[in-house]
Amino acid sequence: CVTKLFQDAYFKGGDITVVFTPNAKHCQIVCTHHPRCLLFTFMAESSSEDPTKFTCILKDSVAETLPMVNMTGAISGYSSKQCSDQISACNKDIYVDLHMKGLNHNSSITKSAQECQERCTNDRHCHFFTFATEHFPSVKYRNICLLKYTQTGMPTNITKLSEVVSGFSLKPCALSNLACIRDIFPRTMFADSNIDSVMAPDAFVCRSICTHHPSCLFFTFFSQEWPTISE
């Protein structure tokens, strides 16, 4: 279990995918919950014109490590998969002057960023939010709470923007008031948009995979007795 973050260091090679995160800590959380990610490099803000800032590069390696080279503004580290006491997707941090971009599916007036985060937490589709403070330059957007979602559950981009506050839903912290439905419905297929398909030994493992997928709300499991999978 390696918890240290390496400043101005870049893991060379092994790239799996790139996502946007507000800081290296959240990049490590994303890496920990990705099935293949063992290492990561987060590109911190180095200049206002830097297009790579806030990018989180997830990495894999058969040797479980990669060559590390010096790079100004880069922060690297390891997945927390081996740290049993640190495996949590809960992120209560609030990010001042950061705009996390995604699909806006709801907007409302709230008194504070905390109230906005609570609304996001209790909204079934919300992954993260951005709140414009009472000092936001445009009067019509002041105290507006934007609830956002994306296909991956992660922001599509992150930029600096004065007088806004962003954060994530606290559903992974078990703080949502949404009903917890544990029932398994035999001989029943949910009809809606399919976001992914994976192999699983039984319905309970399938439910666990759905629970940790950022966009999955419900699932259908096809047992070995199922003759063909309908499209």
From TrEMBL:
By its UniProt entry, which SUPFAM superfamilies does this protein fall under? Hairpin loop containing domain-like
Q: Write the record's keywords in alphabetical order, separated by commas.
A: Blood coagulation, Disulfide bond, Glycoprotein, Hemostasis, Hydrolase, Protease, Repeat, Secreted, Serine protease, Signal, Zymogen
**What GO molecular-function term can you cite, just one?**
serine-type peptidase activity
**Localization per record:** Secreted
Tell me a GO biological process for this protein: proteolysis
Apple domain location: 1-83, 90-173
- Could you tell me which PANTHER family the record lists for this protein? COAGULATION FACTOR XI, PTHR33946
This protein's name: Apple domain-containing protein
Source organism lineage?
Answer: Eukaryota, Metazoa, Chordata, Craniata, Vertebrata
